[in-house]
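Help! Submission page says 'invalid entity' but I think these are all valid:
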Amino acid sequence: MSDHPAIEVRDLVKRFRREMLERSYGTWKSLLLKPFAKKRERDFITVLDGLSFDVAAGRTLAVIGQNGSGKSTLLKIMAGIYKPDQGSVAVHGRVSSLIELGAGFHPEFSGRENVFLNGTILGLSKKEIAERFDHIVAYSGLGEYIDAPVRTYSSGMYVRLGFSVAVNVDPDVLLVDEVLAVGDEAFAHKCEDKINQFKRAGKTIVLVTHDLGAVEKYADEVIWLDGGCLAARGEPLRVIDAYRQKISLMEDQIRRDQCQPQESLDQERWGDGQVLIEAVRVLDGAGGERAVFQQGEALTLEMDYRQIQPTADLVFGVAISNAQEVLCYGTNTHLDRVDLGPLPTAGSVRFDISRLDLVQGTYLLDVAAHATDGRAYDYIKQAASFAVRSGLGDEGVFRPPHAWRAVAKGENP
Amino acid sequence: MTLTQHLAELHRYRALLGALAGRELKGRYRGSLLGFLWTFLNPLLLLLVYALVFSVYFRVQMEHYAVFMFTGLLPWIFFSQSLSEGAGAITDGGSLVTKVLFPQQVLPAVKVLANFANYLLSLPILLGFLLAGGVPLTWCALAFPLVAALHLVFTFALVLILATATVFMRDTRHLLNNLLTLWFFLTPVLYPLSQVPEKYHPLVYLNPAALFTLAYQDIIFHGRWPRWDHLGALALLSLVLLWAGIRVFEHYKEYFAEKI
């Protein structure tokens, strides 16, 4: 690979006409009836606003951002499907895009015929496809089904075949848009293997995904798009953390906006409303709101409550679960035999964790106010979330404080 | 992009062109009982119905009328089908337009080529009817490749423009299908030019589809050379139209993926 970057993006601007996004089409009829209807000037939506960056050859770049932040548009411009309105995008080398798997598959044709058709669409010659055919079929794992019409395939088979063709194009630059999310476990592993193989082979990969786990796993570098601008760019963990922080703040905001005490009987929240939890905050040691913590840091959960009907029988509880919704830890003031003393009708309760001994990941917090017998006044599932970062790759649910040492035989500990 | 680049891309992607046109042809009848036979059966049935209506019911006073009509009908079917299918080539392209990168002119070209192949494949039926009806083929039939090639260029050029227009004006196809019916009756397919009063002939000559039809009838049915002045005019028109079609298509094609 040469030294110059595989992908160069310069001052990239992309705008869409609003009418295009709204899928309203022009017709001769409307042209005839309203020939002088003026196109409104401000009917443009800027999807990408002055992006500039390079991707060095052989590196894997992940693009993250919320829906509508311009990720897919950026990828489509790299693939040459969209044209930039301003600026330029240069991609050096053969590009294969996993934006659409099985483009041009015809349902009535056999898998075999479709491999040839799809391969041709992706730019392979007949000879190249013939050379790779056995490999493509073996890789797809379709076996004898390769001669059955594609309409009889399950969606998983369809995707597998499409993926097999696309990755066998042998590109220099691979553009991947969220396709790794489809398919079963085995397929996911295959994708993973293939991406690692591409990485080892020194291919440049651009990955658009919402799966932050995949980003951590593959990316050498991450860019975070926000409203078509580069919100952050750099080393994966740093950018992902910043992104998570932003997302959780926004979620908090939404939760706060939606926090209607009257509607306390939905799935995520229940209780008789005798006591209400009005706000939940995740704080760091210094008392500032945080969403991302380092392993071993201190964390404080603060909840504001209000007693609608004051009661002496009041217990506060907390539960921490991981992203797989496995309960990691749960306790309450009653179990902990804590007496908070006489509580004012409205106030705050803090739950201090002096050391976050959790492995890296995202965690969800449930909070509750209930009676000693367990009757809920107010139970909020997933009231807040936070992420734990660690440079270590340790696994599991929790991380007990521990140490390793070597002991010679016969030696007393 | 210039004319030559546009065509060179088409040439470079000829394998895809062939594969997609094959898909179009095979896919059209895949899963139907008689399969590919429909390619032949369709025009045959059409011919039988037209012959019944015009020779038996209508009693058109003309020798070998059915063969005459068929000579003009087959190229008209190629032309009108290409136009009505080709107009939607981009809008129906779906993920081929929005998610994959390849020269988009392949899509309209595929529609035209598939119909052209269909046309060529139905020629043996025409030949059979000529022989059965006792209409002799002459050396003039050798001009067929020339006429057909011009017809192909002319059709492709129109399809390029129509496919582009359909992307921006979705009712182009409905409009087109109505116009094609009118156009059909203005073209001397069902009636010989000799039935048209002499003073209206210049009017007929203004219709390029009529010139093509007359040329086919000349070389196949009448067994005489086509009118070279007409062919010259058609050649000029086809090339100008092709140039314009490519200009229009290339100018707007960057919006295709966004617009559909």
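Support: the input was valid. A stray whitespace character was the problem, and the output above is from the cleaned input. Chain A has a mean pLDDT of 83.
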